Amino acid sequence: TLFFVAPHLIKIFYTEEFYDAILVLKISSISIFLIALSQVYGTNYLIVKGYTRKLRNITFFYSILGFLISFPLVSTYSYIGANITLVVIQFLIGITVMFQALKIEKNISK
Q1: How far apart are CA 33 and CA 49, in angstroms?
Q2: What tens digit of pLDDT does each residue of 45-56 get?
Q3: Would you say the pTM of this structure is higher than 0.70?
Q4: What is the DSSP letter of 43?
């Protein structure tokens, strides 16, 4: 819902000079779901089950990847590129952590 109300929120609370923030807020709103995904399967599953090292490695790998892809995106798209980098990396972490947790759960169930 934040995605859809972003234009209204920015227009209510800020002046016209901040209207560019509408796109940033829309892109950032996607990350709410991705952070929840990462927290549920990462912090609340992998850590509890003792897979802290696996979670650390996933996070470290995607942090480095994010650092590397941020240069071309930020230089080309400025703050929008930084926002896109953040959402893409959160997506990759969330999906990877989810699949790792499901894989572990499947192996435990056998």
Answers
A1: 23
A2: 999 999 999 999
A3: yes
A4: I
Report CA-CA distances (Å) from 44 to 34, 83, 90, 107.
14, 26, 16, 18
Any residues with CB less than 8 A from the CB of 6 and at least 6 apart, and which?
22, 25, 26, 29
For 104, phi then psi, to 5°, come to: -65, -45
Question: Could you give the CA distance from residue 32 to residue 18 in angstroms, rounded to a whole number?
Answer: 22
* H helices present in the chain, as ranges: 2-13, 21-38, 52-77, 79-109
> Each residue of 77-101: pLDDT tens digit?
999 999 999 999 999 999 999 999 9
Neighbours of 90 (CB within 10 A): 20
Is residue 83 within 8 A of residue 24, CB to CB? The reply is yes
Q: Distance between CA 22 and CA 1 in Å, rounded?
A: 14
| Residue written as token pair 């926002």 | 83
Phi, psi (5° rounding) for residue 48? -60, -35
